[in-house]
Amino acid sequence: MSDSLKTVILTDGTLTFTKDGHVTGYLTREITNGTYALTKGGKSLVIKDEVGTPYPCESTITSDQLILDSKEVKLTLKKIE
Q: Which own/partner pairs from 7-12 qualify as long-range (CB within 8 Å, at least 24 positions apart)?
């Protein structure tokens, strides 16, 4: 992953998850109408963008953080209230 993409993710990276399985925001690119599935007791998260491209991650969820660990990057997203 390039340094410029890392900078963009750190400055613009946000994801909004809804209870009905949809996700919007910005990860490595903008996701305007994606979906997500959480499996393995919350340890595996797959985000799919609008065209169905999957972004699988190992996930760790706490009350205020979501840690995503994929082959390319490990991200910690903090809950915004």
A: 9/73, 9/75
Instruction: Give the alpha-carbon dihedral of 51, 52, 55, 59, to 10 degrees.
Output: 120
Tell me the per-residue pLDDT of 11-34, one tens digit each, with 9 for 90 and over.
Answer: 878 889 999 999 999 877 889 999
- DSSP letters along 14-53, please? EEEE-TTSEEEEESSSEEEEEEEEEEGGGTEEEEE-TT--
pLDDT band at 58 (very low <50, low <70, confident <90, very high): very high
Q: Residue 9 is inside which H or E element, if any?
A: helix 3-12
Which of 33, 32, 25 lies closest to 8 in space, CA to CA?
25
